[in-house]
Protein backbone atom coordinates (compact mmCIF):
# COMPACT_ATOMS: atom_id res chain seq x y z
CA UNK A 1 0.00 0.00 0.00
CA UNK A 2 0.94 3.63 -0.48
CA UNK A 3 -0.40 5.68 2.45
CA UNK A 4 -0.40 9.44 3.00
CA UNK A 5 -1.15 10.95 6.42
CA UNK A 6 -1.92 14.62 7.00
CA UNK A 7 -1.80 16.43 10.36
CA UNK A 8 -1.24 19.91 11.73
CA UNK A 9 2.03 18.89 13.45
CA UNK A 10 4.56 16.10 13.11
CA UNK A 11 6.36 14.15 15.85
CA UNK A 12 5.16 16.42 18.66
CA UNK A 13 1.93 16.43 20.63
CA UNK A 14 -0.28 13.36 20.83
CA UNK A 15 -1.54 13.60 17.22
CA UNK A 16 1.93 14.24 15.82
CA UNK A 17 3.35 11.23 17.64
CA UNK A 18 0.46 9.01 16.51
CA UNK A 19 1.07 9.96 12.87
CA UNK A 20 4.79 9.25 13.18
CA UNK A 21 4.22 5.89 14.89
CA UNK A 22 1.91 4.77 12.08
CA UNK A 23 4.40 6.01 9.48
CA UNK A 24 7.33 4.10 11.00
CA UNK A 25 5.36 0.87 11.34
CA UNK A 26 4.09 1.07 7.76
CA UNK A 27 7.68 1.34 6.52
CA UNK A 28 8.79 -1.55 8.73
CA UNK A 29 6.06 -3.68 7.16
CA UNK A 30 7.24 -2.83 3.65
CA UNK A 31 4.54 -0.32 2.68
CA UNK A 32 5.14 3.11 1.16
CA UNK A 33 4.37 5.84 3.66
CA UNK A 34 4.23 9.62 3.35
CA UNK A 35 3.46 12.20 6.03
CA UNK A 36 2.54 15.87 5.67
CA UNK A 37 2.18 18.61 8.26
CA UNK A 38 1.49 22.32 8.48
CA UNK A 39 3.20 23.83 11.51
CA UNK A 40 6.40 23.82 13.50
CA UNK A 41 7.90 22.58 15.73
CA UNK A 42 8.64 19.11 14.38
CA UNK A 43 10.59 16.15 15.77
CA UNK A 44 12.03 13.18 13.86
CA UNK A 45 10.16 14.20 10.71
CA UNK A 46 13.00 14.67 8.23
CA UNK A 47 11.04 12.86 5.49
CA UNK A 48 7.83 14.83 6.03
CA UNK A 49 6.20 17.19 3.53
CA UNK A 50 5.58 20.73 4.79
CA UNK A 51 2.29 22.25 3.64
CA UNK A 52 2.90 25.95 3.05
CA UNK A 53 5.26 27.91 5.29
CA UNK A 54 5.31 30.08 8.39
CA UNK A 55 3.93 33.08 6.47
CA UNK A 56 0.92 31.03 5.34
CA UNK A 57 0.25 30.09 8.96
CA UNK A 58 0.49 33.72 10.14
CA UNK A 59 -2.00 34.90 7.50
CA UNK A 60 -4.36 32.04 8.37
CA UNK A 61 -4.19 33.03 12.04
CA UNK A 62 -4.97 36.64 11.09
CA UNK A 63 -7.94 35.54 8.97
CA UNK A 64 -9.24 33.54 11.93
CA UNK A 65 -8.76 36.31 14.49
CA UNK A 66 -10.34 38.99 12.29
CA UNK A 67 -13.12 37.16 10.45
CA UNK A 68 -13.64 33.78 12.18
CA UNK A 69 -12.73 31.92 8.99
CA UNK A 70 -10.61 29.13 10.39
CA UNK A 71 -10.07 26.43 7.77
CA UNK A 72 -10.62 28.87 4.89
CA UNK A 73 -7.10 30.29 4.69
CA UNK A 74 -3.95 28.79 3.13
CA UNK A 75 -5.69 28.41 -0.24
CA UNK A 76 -2.57 28.67 -2.40
CA UNK A 77 -0.59 26.37 -0.08
CA UNK A 78 -3.36 23.75 -0.20
CA UNK A 79 -3.55 23.89 -4.00
CA UNK A 80 0.20 23.32 -4.22
CA UNK A 81 -0.07 20.46 -1.76
CA UNK A 82 -2.84 18.83 -3.80
CA UNK A 83 -0.45 18.77 -6.79
CA UNK A 84 2.05 16.93 -4.60
CA UNK A 85 -0.60 14.42 -3.52
CA UNK A 86 -1.50 13.74 -7.14
CA UNK A 87 2.16 12.93 -7.87
CA UNK A 88 2.36 10.57 -4.88
CA UNK A 89 -0.94 8.92 -5.90
CA UNK A 90 -1.63 7.29 -2.51
CA UNK A 91 -3.94 4.30 -2.13
CA UNK A 92 -5.14 5.57 1.26
CA UNK A 93 -5.31 9.15 2.57
CA UNK A 94 -5.48 9.47 6.35
CA UNK A 95 -6.51 12.83 7.78
CA UNK A 96 -5.81 13.70 11.41
CA UNK A 97 -6.25 17.31 12.58
CA UNK A 98 -7.00 19.35 9.48
CA UNK A 99 -7.57 22.46 11.59
CA UNK A 100 -4.58 24.36 12.92
CA UNK A 101 -4.06 27.28 10.50
CA UNK A 102 -2.52 25.40 7.55
CA UNK A 103 -5.20 23.97 5.19
CA UNK A 104 -8.06 25.27 3.07
CA UNK A 105 -10.71 22.64 3.76
CA UNK A 106 -12.78 23.35 0.66
CA UNK A 107 -9.81 22.89 -1.70
CA UNK A 108 -8.78 19.72 0.12
CA UNK A 109 -12.23 18.09 0.11
CA UNK A 110 -12.99 19.06 -3.48
CA UNK A 111 -9.86 17.08 -4.35
CA UNK A 112 -10.81 14.13 -2.13
CA UNK A 113 -14.21 13.88 -3.80
CA UNK A 114 -12.59 13.88 -7.25
CA UNK A 115 -9.81 11.52 -6.24
CA UNK A 116 -12.33 8.93 -5.08
CA UNK A 117 -9.97 6.68 -3.15
CA UNK A 118 -10.40 5.55 0.47
CA UNK A 119 -10.12 8.29 3.09
CA UNK A 120 -9.68 7.71 6.82
CA UNK A 121 -10.34 10.73 9.02
CA UNK A 122 -9.46 10.55 12.73
CA UNK A 123 -11.43 13.11 14.71
CA UNK A 124 -9.35 14.11 17.71
CA UNK A 125 -11.97 16.66 18.81
CA UNK A 126 -15.34 18.10 17.70
CA UNK A 127 -14.21 20.85 15.31
CA UNK A 128 -15.29 18.94 12.17
CA UNK A 129 -19.00 19.27 12.94
CA UNK A 130 -19.27 22.68 14.63
CA UNK A 131 -19.33 26.20 13.25
CA UNK A 132 -16.35 27.26 15.34
CA UNK A 133 -15.23 25.41 18.44
CA UNK A 134 -13.28 22.22 19.09
CA UNK A 135 -15.29 21.48 22.26
CA UNK A 136 -18.63 22.68 23.60
CA UNK A 137 -19.05 20.91 26.95
CA UNK A 138 -17.85 23.88 29.00
CA UNK A 139 -20.39 26.14 27.28
CA UNK A 140 -23.12 23.46 27.51
CA UNK A 141 -23.98 24.18 23.90
CA UNK A 142 -25.76 21.80 21.52
CA UNK A 143 -26.37 24.13 18.58
CA UNK A 144 -24.04 21.92 16.51
CA UNK A 145 -26.85 19.38 16.24
CA UNK A 146 -29.00 21.63 14.06
CA UNK A 147 -26.96 24.69 13.10
CA UNK A 148 -24.49 26.97 14.88
CA UNK A 149 -25.01 30.70 15.51
CA UNK A 150 -24.09 33.25 18.21
CA UNK A 151 -21.18 31.04 19.29
CA UNK A 152 -20.54 31.16 23.05
CA UNK A 153 -17.00 29.88 22.42
CA UNK A 154 -16.00 32.50 19.85
CA UNK A 155 -12.93 33.47 21.89
CA UNK A 156 -11.89 29.87 22.50
CA UNK A 157 -9.70 28.00 20.00
CA UNK A 158 -9.69 28.86 17.14
CA UNK A 159 -10.07 32.32 18.64
CA UNK A 160 -11.92 35.08 16.79
CA UNK A 161 -11.48 38.54 18.25
CA UNK A 162 -14.10 40.36 16.21
CA UNK A 163 -16.64 38.52 14.05
CA UNK A 164 -18.82 35.51 14.84
CA UNK A 165 -19.05 33.59 11.58
CA UNK A 166 -20.23 30.32 13.15
CA UNK A 167 -23.53 30.16 11.23
CA UNK A 168 -21.86 30.41 7.82
CA UNK A 169 -18.96 28.16 8.88
CA UNK A 170 -21.39 25.45 9.95
CA UNK A 171 -23.28 25.55 6.67
CA UNK A 172 -20.10 25.54 4.61
CA UNK A 173 -18.50 22.72 6.58
CA UNK A 174 -21.64 20.58 6.30
CA UNK A 175 -21.55 20.97 2.51
CA UNK A 176 -17.77 20.43 2.27
CA UNK A 177 -17.43 17.45 4.60
CA UNK A 178 -20.42 15.42 3.42
CA UNK A 179 -20.63 13.47 0.17
CA UNK A 180 -17.20 11.79 0.16
CA UNK A 181 -17.96 8.40 -1.38
CA UNK A 182 -15.43 6.29 0.51
CA UNK A 183 -14.60 7.87 3.86
CA UNK A 184 -14.36 6.15 7.24
CA UNK A 185 -14.30 8.20 10.44
CA UNK A 186 -12.24 7.09 13.43
CA UNK A 187 -12.64 8.38 16.99
CA UNK A 188 -10.45 7.52 19.99
CA UNK A 189 -13.46 7.36 22.32
CA UNK A 190 -16.98 5.94 22.34
CA UNK A 191 -18.10 9.34 23.63
CA UNK A 192 -16.97 11.16 20.47
CA UNK A 193 -18.33 8.38 18.25
CA UNK A 194 -21.74 8.98 19.81
CA UNK A 195 -21.56 12.71 19.06
CA UNK A 196 -20.59 12.07 15.45
CA UNK A 197 -23.71 9.96 14.98
CA UNK A 198 -25.80 12.97 16.07
CA UNK A 199 -24.02 15.36 13.71
CA UNK A 200 -24.11 16.03 9.97
CA UNK A 201 -21.29 13.48 9.62
CA UNK A 202 -23.68 10.65 10.55
CA UNK A 203 -23.66 9.37 6.96
CA UNK A 204 -20.18 7.90 7.43
CA UNK A 205 -19.18 4.65 9.18
CA UNK A 206 -17.43 5.31 12.50
CA UNK A 207 -14.77 3.07 14.01
CA UNK A 208 -13.38 3.51 17.54
CA UNK A 209 -9.61 3.08 17.86
CA UNK A 210 -8.42 4.24 21.30
CA UNK A 211 -5.17 6.14 21.52
CA UNK A 212 -2.27 4.08 22.82
CA UNK A 213 1.01 4.90 24.53
CA UNK A 214 4.51 3.56 24.02
CA UNK A 215 4.71 1.20 26.99
CA UNK A 216 8.42 0.62 26.33
CA UNK A 217 8.92 4.26 27.38
CA UNK A 218 5.95 4.94 29.65
CA UNK A 219 6.65 2.49 32.44
CA UNK A 220 7.91 2.86 36.04
CA UNK A 221 11.11 4.86 35.50
CA UNK A 222 13.20 5.74 38.60
CA UNK A 223 15.12 9.02 38.48
CA UNK A 224 16.54 11.80 40.64
CA UNK A 225 13.57 14.07 39.91
CA UNK A 226 12.52 14.32 43.55
CA UNK A 227 16.07 15.11 44.67
CA UNK A 228 16.55 17.81 42.02
CA UNK A 229 13.37 19.61 43.06
CA UNK A 230 13.68 19.09 46.81
CA UNK A 231 10.72 16.73 47.06
CA UNK A 232 12.33 13.94 49.07
CA UNK A 233 9.65 13.82 51.79
CA UNK A 234 6.77 15.39 49.90
CA UNK A 235 3.49 13.94 48.67
CA UNK A 236 3.47 14.97 45.00
CA UNK A 237 0.26 15.76 43.08
CA UNK A 238 1.06 15.96 39.36
CA UNK A 239 -0.71 17.65 36.44
CA UNK A 240 0.42 17.52 32.79
CA UNK A 241 -0.92 19.34 29.72
CA UNK A 242 0.36 20.72 26.43
CA UNK A 243 -1.40 24.01 27.16
CA UNK A 244 -2.88 24.92 30.52
CA UNK A 245 -6.14 26.82 30.11
CA UNK A 246 -9.62 26.85 31.63
CA UNK A 247 -10.53 23.71 29.64
CA UNK A 248 -7.66 21.78 31.19
CA UNK A 249 -8.58 22.91 34.71
CA UNK A 250 -5.60 25.13 35.55
CA UNK A 251 -7.65 27.08 38.11
CA UNK A 252 -8.44 23.88 40.03
CA UNK A 253 -4.76 23.47 40.88
CA UNK A 254 -4.50 27.07 42.09
CA UNK A 255 -7.52 26.52 44.33
CA UNK A 256 -6.25 23.14 45.55
CA UNK A 257 -2.89 24.67 46.52
CA UNK A 258 -4.62 26.80 49.18
CA UNK A 259 -5.51 23.70 51.24
CA UNK A 260 -2.32 21.64 51.03
CA UNK A 261 -0.31 20.62 54.08
CA UNK A 262 3.38 21.48 54.41
CA UNK A 263 4.38 18.00 53.20
CA UNK A 264 2.21 18.19 50.06
CA UNK A 265 3.15 19.86 46.77
CA UNK A 266 1.76 20.24 43.25
CA UNK A 267 3.92 19.81 40.14
CA UNK A 268 2.53 21.19 36.86
CA UNK A 269 4.17 20.29 33.55
CA UNK A 270 3.45 22.37 30.45
CA UNK A 271 2.97 25.79 32.04
CA UNK A 272 3.98 29.00 30.29
CA UNK A 273 6.41 31.64 31.60
CA UNK A 274 3.44 33.84 32.48
CA UNK A 275 1.76 31.04 34.43
CA UNK A 276 4.96 30.16 36.29
CA UNK A 277 5.11 33.71 37.66
CA UNK A 278 1.60 33.40 39.13
CA UNK A 279 2.13 30.02 40.84
CA UNK A 280 2.12 29.92 44.67
CA UNK A 281 5.15 28.55 46.52
CA UNK A 282 3.71 25.05 46.92
CA UNK A 283 3.24 24.64 43.15
CA UNK A 284 6.27 23.83 41.01
CA UNK A 285 5.94 24.82 37.37
CA UNK A 286 7.85 23.04 34.60
CA UNK A 287 7.72 24.10 30.98
CA UNK A 288 6.51 21.69 28.34
CA UNK A 289 8.84 18.79 27.63
CA UNK A 290 8.84 16.85 24.36
CA UNK A 291 11.12 14.14 25.76
CA UNK A 292 8.95 11.12 26.53
CA UNK A 293 11.50 9.49 28.86
CA UNK A 294 11.73 12.65 30.96
CA UNK A 295 7.96 12.73 31.20
CA UNK A 296 7.91 9.07 32.28
CA UNK A 297 10.36 9.93 35.06
CA UNK A 298 8.06 12.71 36.30
CA UNK A 299 4.97 10.48 36.19
CA UNK A 300 6.85 7.82 38.16
CA UNK A 301 8.04 10.31 40.78
CA UNK A 302 4.51 11.55 41.49
CA UNK A 303 2.22 10.04 44.12
CA UNK A 304 -1.01 10.83 42.31
CA UNK A 305 -1.89 12.26 38.90
CA UNK A 306 -4.78 14.72 38.82
CA UNK A 307 -6.44 15.67 35.51
CA UNK A 308 -9.25 18.21 36.09
CA UNK A 309 -10.06 18.46 32.38
CA UNK A 310 -13.46 19.96 31.68
CA UNK A 311 -13.51 19.06 27.97
CA UNK A 312 -11.57 16.19 26.44
CA UNK A 313 -11.82 13.39 23.94
CA UNK A 314 -9.49 10.66 25.19
CA UNK A 315 -6.66 12.23 27.24
CA UNK A 316 -3.45 10.30 26.62
CA UNK A 317 -1.84 11.75 29.76
CA UNK A 318 -4.15 9.56 31.88
CA UNK A 319 -2.86 6.46 30.08
CA UNK A 320 0.77 7.56 30.40
CA UNK A 321 0.45 8.09 34.15
CA UNK A 322 -1.19 4.68 34.72
CA UNK A 323 1.45 2.96 32.57
CA UNK A 324 4.08 4.50 34.87
CA UNK A 325 2.33 3.08 37.94
CA UNK A 326 0.79 6.35 39.16
CA UNK A 327 -2.82 6.50 40.31
CA UNK A 328 -5.08 8.84 38.30
CA UNK A 329 -7.98 11.05 39.38
CA UNK A 330 -9.71 12.56 36.35
CA UNK A 331 -12.90 14.46 35.80
CA UNK A 332 -15.61 12.47 34.04
CA UNK A 333 -15.87 14.77 31.03
CA UNK A 334 -16.03 13.71 27.40
CA UNK A 335 -14.17 10.43 26.96
CA UNK A 336 -11.92 10.79 30.01
CA UNK A 337 -13.59 8.00 31.98
CA UNK A 338 -12.77 5.58 29.13
CA UNK A 339 -9.04 6.04 29.86
CA UNK A 340 -9.28 4.49 33.35
CA UNK A 341 -8.20 0.91 32.71
CA UNK A 342 -9.01 -0.48 36.17
CA UNK A 343 -10.48 0.58 39.50
CA UNK A 344 -7.03 -0.24 40.85
CA UNK A 345 -5.38 2.37 38.64
CA UNK A 346 -7.67 5.38 38.85
CA UNK A 347 -11.10 6.93 39.14
CA UNK A 348 -13.27 9.31 37.10
CA UNK A 349 -15.31 11.78 39.15
CA UNK A 350 -17.74 14.55 38.37
CA UNK A 351 -16.24 18.07 38.47
CA UNK A 352 -16.31 19.12 42.10
CA UNK A 353 -14.79 21.46 44.66
CA UNK A 354 -11.09 21.60 45.50
CA UNK A 355 -11.89 20.53 49.07
CA UNK A 356 -13.58 17.34 47.85
CA UNK A 357 -10.59 16.60 45.64
CA UNK A 358 -8.30 17.17 48.61
CA UNK A 359 -10.26 14.58 50.61
CA UNK A 360 -9.68 12.05 47.81
CA UNK A 361 -5.99 12.90 47.72
CA UNK A 362 -5.74 12.54 51.52
CA UNK A 363 -7.34 9.09 51.36
CA UNK A 364 -4.82 7.99 48.73
CA UNK A 365 -2.02 9.48 50.80
CA UNK A 366 -3.08 7.47 53.83
CA UNK A 367 -2.91 4.14 52.01
CA UNK A 368 0.19 4.90 49.92
CA UNK A 369 -0.53 5.28 46.21
CA UNK A 370 2.49 3.36 44.97
CA UNK A 371 0.93 0.21 46.35
CA UNK A 372 -2.47 0.87 44.80
CA UNK A 373 -1.83 0.09 41.13
CA UNK A 374 -1.16 -3.57 40.52
CA UNK A 375 1.05 -4.66 37.63
CA UNK A 376 -1.83 -6.16 35.67
CA UNK A 377 -3.48 -2.71 35.62
CA UNK A 378 -0.35 -1.15 34.15
CA UNK A 379 -0.25 -3.83 31.48
CA UNK A 380 -3.91 -3.12 30.63
CA UNK A 381 -3.00 0.29 29.19
CA UNK A 382 -3.41 0.12 25.42
CA UNK A 383 -0.02 0.12 23.75
CA UNK A 384 0.70 2.35 20.80
CA UNK A 385 1.51 -0.76 18.76
CA UNK A 386 -2.00 -2.13 19.24
CA UNK A 387 -3.37 1.24 18.13
CA UNK A 388 -1.07 1.39 15.10
CA UNK A 389 -1.89 -2.17 14.05
CA UNK A 390 -5.60 -1.34 14.29
CA UNK A 391 -5.10 1.55 11.87
CA UNK A 392 -3.04 -0.53 9.46
CA UNK A 393 -5.67 -3.27 9.61
CA UNK A 394 -8.27 -0.67 8.63
CA UNK A 395 -6.07 0.53 5.74
CA UNK A 396 -5.68 -3.04 4.48
CA UNK A 397 -9.42 -3.65 4.66
CA UNK A 398 -10.19 -0.50 2.67
CA UNK A 399 -7.37 -1.19 0.20
CA UNK A 400 -8.62 -4.71 -0.51
CA UNK A 401 -12.20 -3.47 -0.94
CA UNK A 402 -10.98 -0.86 -3.41
CA UNK A 403 -9.04 -3.41 -5.45
CA UNK A 404 -12.01 -5.77 -5.57
CA UNK A 405 -14.14 -3.00 -7.06
CA UNK A 406 -11.48 -2.22 -9.67
CA UNK A 407 -11.20 -5.81 -10.91
CA UNK A 408 -14.95 -6.37 -10.61
CA UNK A 409 -14.79 -9.20 -8.09
UniProtKB/TrEMBL annotation:
Which InterPro entries does the record match to this protein? Glyco_trans_1, Glyco_trans_4-like_N
Glycosyltransferase subfamily 4-like N-terminal domain ranges (all copies): 17-216
Q: Which interval of the chain is the signal sequence?
A: none
What the entry lists under Pfam families is as follows: Glyco_transf_4, Glycos_transf_1
Glycosyl transferase family domain span: 226-365
Top-rank taxon? Bacteria
Annotated GO molecular function terms are: glycosyltransferase activity
PANTHER family from the UniProt entry: GLYCOSYLTRANSFERASE, GLYCOSYLTRANSFERASE EPSF-RELATED
Under which name does UniProt file this protein?
Glycosyltransferase
Amino acid sequence: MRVLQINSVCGVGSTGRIMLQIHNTLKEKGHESYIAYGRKPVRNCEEAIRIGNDLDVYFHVLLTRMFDLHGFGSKKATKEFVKTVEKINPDIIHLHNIHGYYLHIEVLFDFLKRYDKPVVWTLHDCWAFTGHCAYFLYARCDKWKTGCYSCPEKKAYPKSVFLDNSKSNYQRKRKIFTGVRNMTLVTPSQWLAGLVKESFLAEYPVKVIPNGVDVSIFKPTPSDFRKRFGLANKFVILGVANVWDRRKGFDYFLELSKYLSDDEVIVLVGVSDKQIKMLPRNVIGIKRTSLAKELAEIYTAADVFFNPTLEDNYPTVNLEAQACGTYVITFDSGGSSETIVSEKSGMAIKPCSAKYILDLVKSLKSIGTKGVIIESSMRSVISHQFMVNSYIGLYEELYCEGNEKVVGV
